[in-house]
Structures are given as C-alpha cells and as structure tokens.
Amino acid sequence: MAAVIQTINQFLVSGQYHSILALIKGLRNGIVYGAKVRFPHALVMTFLFKSDSFRNKLITILQATYTHSKNLGLFVLSYKTLTTIMQYVQTQKYQPQSFIAAFCAGYLIFGRYNKVNEQINLYLLSRIIYGLAKLAVKKGYVPKPKKDAFPMFAALVWGIVLWLFEHEKDTLQPSLRSSMTYLYTDSNKWHDLKDFIIHNKP
C-alpha cells in the first residue's frame, strides 16, 4: 500500500498531465470551499428564521450546501478548462481570456436562478463594484480622495438601503427585506414584557 501511495505521489509531482490534474484539483477545491461556506451559513439562517420541522430544516440545509458546492466546483472546473484551452490555442495568456471564460461559465452555471445562485451573484456584485471603484483610482480615472472615503461609502450604502426599504420595499431581495422588517418594523410593536424583551411577536 505504501508503495502505491508513493507511486501516486511521484506521478502527481512529476509535472506530467499537470493541466488536467489542475482541473480535477480545482473541482475538488470548489466543492470543499462551497460546503465550508454554505453549510454554517445555511445552518444558522435556517434555524434562526425558518419555521419548520427539524427534518425539513435539515433537508433545506443539505440542499443549499449541495447546490453551492456543486455549482462552485463546476464553475471552477469550467473556468479552468476554458482558460487552459484558450492558452493552448493562443500559446500565451491574455487578459480577455479570464473574462471570456468566466462569462461563459457564469452564464451556464450561475445563470440558472435559485436562491443560492442569487446570493452568490449579489455577494460578488458588491465586491466588484468596490473593486472597480478602487481600480478607477489606481488607473487615475478618478482622483484619489484627499481623506478617507469609507465613511461616505458607508453613509451612502445605508442611506440608500433604508430609503428603498421605507419607500420602495418591493425592490429589495426578500431575505434582506425580511431582515429589515424584523429590525425596523417589528421593533415598533409589542403587547407585553415577554414580546418586548424575549420573543418578537409582531
């Protein structure tokens, strides 16, 4: 058995078939990372906010974890496959390759609507807007702020989201709308000491 493991290890580090092995490792890492991120999130959110039987809660958690893991693993595999093919055809790496590969893989995998894909896409949207703003400063398209811009960024984010919640509630994502209702609307209602301090009962 030790000899078999040693042979496999030698094969893996030999560099032979490195591109194909990198695709398999990418698939593996996507699956593992998706499970590590989604399972605790789904566990907490389901038990905190979902009213259902223990069995149904468990099924919800496992389904969300499976979907996240599968989609992230398939995305990594697709992205790495496409970039590898493009680099093979063009003999070297170009910047547009990463965009084209991710665009195609994103359309095929994360373009199918479900709650998990929606959450992942929204998470990435906030990150890329932030990243593009920093890139604009880095490239000189926008002058570098003379003082810390983070307070103004925070003020705009919170100002806009509360304005939307108060006046255009239907435009917000359901989970965000639900959270904000709990925080800002349900806190206006109580009947006795119990639902004032311990249990929220709108």
From TrEMBL:
<protein>
    <recommendedName>
        <fullName>Peroxisomal membrane protein 4</fullName>
    </recommendedName>
</protein>
<dbReference type="Pfam" id="PF02466">
    <property type="entry name" value="Tim17"/>
</dbReference>
<dbReference type="InterPro" id="IPR019531">
    <property type="entry name" value="Pmp4"/>
</dbReference>
<dbReference type="GO" id="GO:0005778">
    <property type="term" value="C:peroxisomal membrane"/>
</dbReference>
